[in-house]
Amino acid sequence: MTAPLQKPAAWPDGLLLTYYGDDFTGSTDAMDALSVAGVATVLFLETPNQAMLARFPNVRCVGLAGSSRGRNPAWMKSELSAALASLAALGAPILQYKVCSTFDSSAETGSIGCAIDIGVEQMRGRWSPMIIGAPRLKRYQAFGNLFAAVDGVGYRIDRHPTMARHPVTPMKEADLRVHLRGQTSRRIELLDIVQLRQGSADQRLQALAGDDVPVVMCDVLDEETLLAAGRLVWQQRGEGVFTASSSGLQYALVSHWRELGLLPAQVSFPVAERVPAIAVVSGSCSPVTAQQIAWARANGFHTERLDLERALNRQTTEDEIKRVVVAAAAAIERGVSALVYSAEGPDDPSVVHFDAIAVKAGLSRADAARRIGTALAAVMCRLLDQVDLQRIVVAGGDSSGEVASALGISALSVLAPMAPGAPLCRAWSEQVRRDGLQIVLKGGQIGGQSFFCDVVAGTSTTA
User: In 3D, which of 396, 446, 420, 398 has the Cα closest to residue 110?
Assistant: First the structure.
């Protein structure tokens, strides 16, 4: 590997990185990776203006939570283009389109290739780095192929028990170069683990970069290749680069910044205190979340299933929301945490028969999914208005976007670590009842079995 550069006196002035998250849980994942390392980061839920930015004078990284993971290219060319332009205007040397570390996407939904074609126009760089592997999240890339571990067992992503069966964007190809070529005609290259370990990546990059701005994937298998990838991106950022990457980018940059002495090895964060009870809403279909729901039920939570047929039928939507709110509020008033969920794993009947349920309601799959997110958002808003809650959790990327938007939150900052990729956040809002609310936005694959109970206790975990 190449020797580290001489340690600089300080970071360059201004922002170091701006990013757009393709869903809300992924957005907090990226914020978590930076914040817990000591890089002041704020995640905005709407495009920040100067007045909003002025509230955070010491911020070094700015994120914008989005919903492009579930959108089509026409939406992306309109909405995402404007969002990335607003972030590029802030002047950071790295502009990121933050993708999920499982890379699930297609040409029709959440196209990463479309996002790249939009994003490269915003920066002046001659390459577009891509880092997907994130060992801390048990995601690994080797020779272009993506792997993910579940319960200590590693899977190629096209054989992963969840992502290979994703209801909207199943991963049928593990080689990310092949998968991405179905979404863009842009040149796609790879810096593999051998080149990164042997120190030839810089030289290889010089041969690959060009006016056509190729995507250059960087394998990340372990801490050594993570550091090498971060070093490469930071040293070769030039006049500014656009990157479509997972939070592996954040972890890689942090690793290099520590190497340069710009960050301490450890950062002290306040320990979250136990609260009497929390409210949880979950729209996740993940088996990981299903295990967490079952654990919570077995350990004192009141769990309440949202009936999807009633929630999607306009004549019964209001009654169904009222029903679950009444039950959950009664539990919380007794000091019992409440969890409202729409599914319990990929084999849940509500998931298996979701298309038929949507058709019965006269809705497309996408519209039905958003309607469920809206119902869960209404449940959480009413709970917050009716009972005294200090801390809440939202599970599922789409659900998190719907709920967080409905709550009137303008920004989030990390309050304390919780689980990798799902920190305990402080909400910033113009609404007095929402400002200061503690919230966790949890992706479907994130956290151990006891996650929801850990949030009640304020217990931070490393797995």
Answer: 398
